[in-house]
């Protein structure tokens, strides 16, 4: 057996079979994005990440302004509730992507490519020495395509199992207003209070 053929055989046996689709009903990948005003962004982010990890989720990125999480879809509402409880929610968006047709199409294509690979092995068994190299090259490309399809399917299965949650934080100023005698109404600050009181007294008299 040639080294190339041996490599192909080993590569083929290393390709695991994907489990059959367990649920023919629509397969929806969900996600949420919210904006929360908080007094302490660091503390709020820590609380949300802790809730995600307690739900067997994880964060993929974190900055001072936002965190990006992946949370088991069945527990996403619990983590979302914790995030919303950190302050005042000023923005929210929900997404739901139906991956049913995409997954079924990729599974069908994968099965087709596996069948072609099996036929290549049958051809290789009876191929002439002059054509073995060509068949091996085609098999190598086919195995790469099969591995790519499997990777895409695993990614979509992961997207189904883990909701995408993005939480952005805006600073909420809770400091008490300064007592400098000025009003928050600009028009009132422009008035002469002494003249106003004088006019009022004149009207009374």
Question: What would you note in describing this structure?
Answer:
It contains seven helices and five strands; from the N terminus they run αβαββαβααβαα. It has a five-stranded mixed β-sheet with strand order 2-3-5-1-4. The protein has 205 residues and is of the alpha+beta class. The termini are far apart. A hairpin with a 3-residue loop joins strand 2 and strand 3. The protein has one domain.
Keywords, please?
alpha+beta, 205 residues, 21% strand, single chain, 7 helices
Report how far the terminal alpha carbons are from each other: 118 Å
Annotation field: number of helices: 7
Instruction: Give the class from helix and strand content and strand pairing.
Output: alpha+beta
What do the pLDDT scores average to?
83
Secondary-structure element pattern, one letter each? HEHEEHEHHEHH
What's the count of strands?
5
The amount of helix comes to 40-55%
- Which residues sit in consecutive blocks of at least 5 with pLDDT less than 50? none
**Neighbour order of strands in the largest sheet:** 2-3-5-1-4
Describe the biggest sheet?
Answer: 5 strands, mixed
In total, how many domains does the architecture comprise?
A: 1
Taking Cα atoms only, what radius of gyration do you get, to the nearest Å? 32 Å
Strand content: 15-25%
Subunit organisation of the chains = single chain
| Structural shape | rod-shaped
Map the helices and strands:
Blueprint: H1 3-14, E1 28-38, H2 41-54, E2 58-62, E3 66-72, H3 76-84, E4 88-98, H4 100-126, H5 129-161, E5 162-171, H6 186-189, H7 193-204
Parallel strand pairs: 1-5
Antiparallel strand pairs: 1-4, 2-3, 3-5
């Amino acid at each position: 057996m040639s080294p190339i053929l041996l490599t192909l055989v080993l590569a083929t046996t290393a390709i695991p079979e994907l489990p059959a689709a367990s649920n023919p009903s629509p397969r929806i990948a969900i996600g949420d994005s919210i904006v929360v005003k908080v007094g302490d962004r660091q503390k709020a982010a820590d609380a949300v990440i802790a809730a995600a990890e307690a739900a067997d989720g994880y964060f993929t990125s974190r900055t001072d302004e936002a965190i990006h999480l992946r949370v088991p879809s069945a527990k996403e509402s619990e983590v979302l509730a914790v995030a919303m409880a950190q302050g005042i929610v000023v923005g929210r968006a929900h997404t739901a992507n139906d991956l049913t047709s995409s997954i079924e199409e990729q599974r069908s294509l994968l099965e087709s490519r596996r069948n072609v690979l099996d036929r290549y092995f049958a051809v290789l068994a009876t191929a002439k020495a002059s054509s073995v190299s060509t068949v091996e090259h085609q098999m190598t490309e086919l195995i790469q395509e099969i591995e790519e399809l499997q990777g895409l399917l695993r990614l979509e299965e992961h997207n189904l199992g883990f909701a995408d949650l993005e939480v952005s934080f805006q600073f909420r100023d809770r400091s008490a207003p300064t007592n400098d005698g000025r009003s928050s109404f600009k028009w009132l600050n422009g008035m002469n209070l002494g003249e106003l009181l004088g006019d009022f007294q004149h009207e009374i008299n």
